[in-house]
Amino acid sequence: xxxxxxxLVKSLSKEEVRNFKLFTSKYKSKGTKAxxxxxxxxxxxxxxxxxxxxxxxxxxxxxxxxYYRLKNRLIQEVEDSLxxxxxxxxxSFEVFRLLRxxxxxxxxxxxxxxxxxxxxxxxxxxxxxxxxSMHLIYKQYVALISNLSSINPVDYIQRKRKYNxxxxxxxxxxxxxxxxxxxxxVTNFSGKNQSVLDTLDNLLExxxxxxxxxxxxxxxxxxxxxxxxxxxxxxxxxxLAEYLEQTFERFSREGLFTKQYHRNKIVMLIWIINTTVxxxxxxxxxxxxxxxxxxxxxxxxxxxxxxxxxHQTSKFALNSYAGYNKKAVVIAEKALSEHSLAINHPHxxxxxxxxxxxxxxxxxxNKALEYLSRITADAFFNTLPPVWKISLKIMEIIxxxxxxxxxxxxxxxxxxxxxxxxxLKEDGYRREGMFLDIxxxxxxxxxxxxxxxxxxxxxxxxxxxxxxxxxxxxxxNYNIWLSSKIKRTDYYSELIGR
Length: 498
Fold this sequence. Notes:
Blueprint: H1 4-10, H2 14-26, H3 32-43, H4 52-58, H5 64-89, H6 93-107, H7 111-127, H8 131-144, H9 153-186, H10 194-208, H11 217-233, H12 237-253, H13 262-278, H14 282-296, H15 304-321, H16 325-338, H17 348-361, H18 365-376, H19 386-402, H20 406-419, H21 430-444, H22 452-464, H23 478-487, H24 491-497
Helix pairs in contact: 1-5, 2-5, 3-5, 6-7, 6-8, 7-8, 8-9, 9-10, 9-11, 10-11, 11-12, 12-13, 13-14, 13-15, 14-15, 15-16, 15-17, 16-17, 17-18, 18-19, 19-20, 19-21, 20-21, 21-22, 22-23
């Protein structure tokens, strides 16, 4: 794969770079200086890894073949340093370490020692409820049978069957939950798919009758996930907020949030934040944002990188909802100045939409469009589900209306209607369809908010959809935007007044 080395090196966090340097200094050998030199050149972006000059820089007396070997060695050293770093962070890696040692002593014909390591691996896997690894463990036990008479094959075969059955059931449930998560994600949790609810109800019923897993911590977290997904899909936000806070407190009290389940703790906190935002409890949500920040720094920042941008999005968006929009802009821009965020990052879209919105609140249309365009002008936009394409293009139309660029707004409107004509006729998209019709009238009329026909449509829309739901599909809330126009008030003032 071309640029494999560059992509690998540039993906490293500061902690991972520091660990690589320590790792290479610990195992110094011939060529280490050239290795570190090549790493630094690529890390700092001074040269292309395929540039001919780089060969003479890192290997003055070397050939291209020497350089290619050095590149391959650097890839391996970086990968080994990552394995060394995360071995200390993730308990599940201990099972594989013990399995490797068991195999090594089997090669050495020290079968008793190999069995001891397998026993330790089995205990560790059971403690972690890592049933996937049990298959590998029993496979090695079976390999030892011909060399150790102390191993009763019947006993191990029965245990293997037992844990295979549990693992198979857990995997089936995970696949179902993953499919539910996908369906909900592509509709941005809008509750438009009844089949998702049916799947959740059936899955929850299955989980609760699995006797062999009734005391499993993993199963408790899976049941929790199904309950909250079900409440979210039904849009019962008040009940969901209460359930999440009580469950978080109970799981904390029972000590379930160990290092192994640290990710579950982070995810639950994110859910609490998002749900309390839906309930417009911004002060409480900000308290949980602080708890999330402390949690991300636990266990040597085990999942810090993965959830950093979600935390930052919650932090600045909540400050904006709470009336501190200027502060929100400072928080958001500070994070971007200190960390790079590519559009293909899983949380980039949420970040840029929210950042675009707070700049709109700040009446900075140029910046609002700039950050929105990072999504809409990128090839990534074409891969988005229709609900997101419609929502983002409506935001873009609003910005151009505000900028009095009506021709551009009309072009976007025409393309949107043409590409999603059938979808916008469906009941699930009636709100978007009604709002787009109003936008068309606003674009075409000279004085739209003095026009009785347009005003009648606006009032009908506001009567049909009177509620404001924070953090919904709409970056700019349609209801509040229309209200601010007919009242001749500022959008952000209208927003925080709700």
